[in-house]
Amino acid sequence: MKTIFLFRNKAVGLNDSLSSFCQLAVTAQCLCLFAGPPRLDGAQSELEDAAPASFQGNPRQSHIVEQEQIAHGRKLFMRETFDGNGRSCVACHAITTGTLAPVEAQARYQRAVSSPKGVQIDPLFRSIDSDDGVSEKYDRLLTNATIRVHLDLPPEVTLETDPARRSIVVNRGIPSVINAGLAVVLMADGREPSLESQALHAILGHAQAARLPTQAQLEDIAQYERSLFSRPELAGAVPDGSAPLLPPASTPEESRGRKHFERGGLCALCHSGPLLNTTLDDRHFENIFVSERNVLQNPVQHFLFQNADATMKSVETPDPGLALITGDVADVNSFRIPTLWNIKNTAPYFHDNSAQTLEDVLAHYRLYLPLSAEDSRDIIAFLKLL
Ligand code: HEC
Ligand code: HEC
Hints:
Number of helices: 11
Bound molecules: heme C
């Protein structure tokens, strides 16, 4: 059985890995984020009703202009289709959670098929996201709530079976847009540099737009996204703000669970910092074997990576993650460490939606980390406070 130490992602022997694990644990002693006064508690899940917290990262703009931008951005997010396939952002990033769960996809499908006009009335169901990308069969979308994401291959990478092909499709879950304005790394593989470029690519890709958005429209959408926080004090996590602290525990279970996120805790090794999304030495990507396990049996693809010394390495995986952005075989199956704020509302989990519940997430970690069944229950109790 693999252990936590292999999480350190480069292929290393146990001793090497042990020493890097210890290094992390030592660094953990310096982490002071988790001490401090009790935090506010104002979880906000209804996007529609959310009074947008002001974004403090852009001092050039007056509050009023900013509020207008947010309101305009919200309208675009909810309704603007850019004459494409009928999709606006909210087709996939639902109002309440900022994401989409299989039960919601199924309910929407039922509603749509029982209407006179059929499934086409709901823009979630467009053939580009059908099982094969061209038909009208939506088993994958309904079961896993994953979307087909097209990725260009970097120059170092080819497909063993089809060397001429320069792009692939992977099935990915929809991350929540709530708190996304705080993310340093966007998308599971980090490929988008800004919310504006992300919005442009969503409009051209998911929405198959016939009309280009203006730069101002992209900025308004991004500004709206920057106003979506799951709790007000996260607004302080922008540069120069005060970092949010871990919520206080009020039961013995929560208190034991919290320890895994405090200095020296196992989960804190990777879920640290104000957003609980970095390692202790501030790295943003790790491999925790989600692609390797491939629980949902996404199609496995055969890649050839060219190493720096011109040798080739062949890799089989449903989704190589970061490696398709860097072209570096050492990054195969590494994914962005996601924030854990609001986690109780954003199931399913992992880049491929392979964990339906927090119990499933912990069952995954128990394959690799020294955690008992009780530890899992404690951690879940604490995660529900975030
Ligand atoms: C067809 C469904 C779909 C539509 C429509 C859609 N998205 Fe997404 N969105 C996704 C998926 C899937 C991802 C993750 C892709 C990945 O990781 O490679 C994503 C990722 C994102 C992210 C990154 C969040 C993070 O934590 O990294 C943001 C922000 C976002 N979308 C905003 C938008 C905006 C704005 C629009 C409208 C212009 C939009 N999306 C339309 C499916 C969709
Ligand atoms: C070695 C680094 C590492 C450690 C240690 C770690 N995580 Fe993670 N965590 C990740 C990465 C990377 C992902 C994203 C994996 C993916 O999408 O394939 C993730 C994803 C998650 C998710 C899903 C988030 C989402 O939005 O889909 C949860 C929940 C989570 N971790 C909780 C925990 C808990 C609880 C612990 C401690 C038991 C823990 N993690 C320890 C790196 C780590």
